[in-house]
Amino acid sequence: MKKIQQIKTQIFADGAAKADMLEMYRNSYIKGFTTNPTLMRRAGIANYESFARDILSAIPDRPISFEVIADDFTEMERQARRITTWGRLVSVKIPITNTKRESSVPLICKLSQDGVALNVTAIFTLSQVQDVVAAVSGGAQCYVSVLAGRIADSGLDPVPIMAAAVDRLRAASNAQLIWGSARELLNIFQADEIGCHVITVTNEILKKISLLGKDPDEYSLETVKMFYEDAMIAGYRL
Question: What mean pLDDT do residues 86-97 have?
């Protein structure tokens, strides 16, 4: 098994709790960060821009993505152009459609060709990948975020889809594929195996990195001990 430092796929920490982000920032294998409005809400963030600027002052030298919060494309564009001014390593997250299922591709094309670094998110299909590749080719740096974890949640194997997406991105040298919504450490190795550029992983999963390469027999014994000790602490009797 490869060591985490040998993985070619870049690992981005996914979250919105400042303490967790700074904890991951101390690890050299964390190459960037992503967040989204849902994670920010769970973290209790009240002021979006204040949070973003605070994080950027604490983490000035690694890529970070922040998402627009509009559903109308005119307002989405205004927000994107504002967010991009927050820092030189900021990418603006644009969902592949709005809530009305209207495609964001025309806006994605416009922003990319105007030099706005993007992170196109909530992608689930190869046709969506293809549309984004065509829109951003020759434009600014762009992450193409396929939410592989959510695809797996639906019962589909995301690996063939992600491998095909890697091939499609060869047509746009400025685009990098993100394996989004990782569900387990195994996903990091799956992403690396197919040549995926980036994977986003939550702190909860990243904290399991110490388990990599752990002896199965020892892990089995530790698990047995955990079950026994918890039963004793709980005072269970039969």
Answer: 98
pLDDT tens digits, one per residue of 203-216: 999 999 999 999 99
Using alpha carbons, select from 82, 97, 133 the residue that is nearest to residue 112: 133
* Integer-rounded Cα radius of gyration of the chain: 20
Q: Are the CB atoms for 136 and 145 separated by under 8 Å? A: no
Of 3, 58, 55, 9, the C-alpha closest to 34 is 55
Determine how many CB atoms are found less than 10 A away from the CB of residue 126: 16
Residue with tokens 């190795």: 189
> Tens digit of pLDDT for each residue in 70-90?
999 999 999 999 999 999 999
> Tokens for 202?
């939550």
Query: How many angstroms separate the CA atoms of 211 and 191, rounded?
Result: 19
Give the whole-angstrom CA distance, residue 2 versus residue 85. 38
Residues 6+ apart with CB under 8 A from 12: 30, 31, 32, 33, 34, 63, 178, 198, 199, 200, 201
Does the reported pTM lie above 0.85? yes
**Nearest Cα to 8, choosing from 166, 238, 228?**
166
Domains in the chain, start-ordered, CATH in brackets?
Answer: 4-211 (3.20.20.70)
